[in-house]
Amino acid sequence: MDEKGAILEKIDHIGIVVKDLDKAIRVFSEALGLTVRTIQVLEEYQAKIAFLPIGESFIELCQPIGPGEDQDFLTEHGEGLQHICFEVKNIDKTLEEIGRKVELRDKKPRLGAEGSRIAFLDPQSVFNIEIELAERKKS
């Protein structure tokens, strides 16, 4: 925490589930002027993702490639905004601090995209918002 008591550093990314990643990339590139930084297949999450920078944050486009959370979201809700991710300096300490105040889906961090360490809060504890925390891999 900083001197003002902030636990979260910034918005890291906004996750959007899509049916067709190539089509979504075209729309975000051609219509909105964003460019792709990385495209990555995450087998453990059965998703193909693209990160598009916008300011200090990213849009994360997620296409399910098999059963998993993204496919469940797509089936239940259709395409659209799935989650917001906040960057934190130390995810272990952040989970300990936040876990005293709200329920955690992930009690321990797991591996995320681009070598990050991630964890999710229980949406029921935070007004049905899917919130991800990410500690970015140090370069």
List the helices and strands and how they pair.
Elements: E1 10-17, H1 21-31, E2 38-42, E3 47-54, E4 57-64, H2 69-77, E5 80-87, H3 91-99, E6 110-111, E7 117-120, E8 131-135
Parallel strand pairs: 1-4, 5-8
Antiparallel strand pairs: 1-5, 2-3, 3-4, 6-7, 7-8
Structure in words:
The chain has 139 residues and is α+β, with helices and mostly antiparallel strands. It has a single domain, classed as 2,3-Dihydroxybiphenyl 1,2-Dioxygenase, domain 1. The protein has helices at residues 21-31, 69-77, 91-99, and strands at residues 10-17, 38-42, 47-54, 57-64, 80-87, 110-111, 117-120, 131-135. It has an 8-stranded mixed β-sheet. A hairpin with a 5-residue loop joins strand 6 (110-111) and strand 7. 25% of the residues are buried.
Name a few traits of the molecule.
139 residues; alpha+beta; 2,3-Dihydroxybiphenyl 1,2-Dioxygenase, domain 1; eight-stranded mixed sheet
Q: In percent, how helical is the residue content?
A: 10-25%
Task: From the 3D structure, determine the CATH topology.
Answer: 2,3-Dihydroxybiphenyl 1,2-Dioxygenase, domain 1
Structural class: alpha+beta
Topology, number of strands? 8
Radius of gyration: 15 Å
What's the overall geometry? globular
Strands of the biggest beta sheet: in what spatial order?
2-3-4-1-5-8-7-6
Task: Quickly describe the structure.
This protein has helices at 21-31, 69-77, 91-99, and strands at 10-17, 38-42, 47-54, 57-64, 80-87, 110-111, 117-120, 131-135. The protein is of the alpha+beta class and 139 residues long.
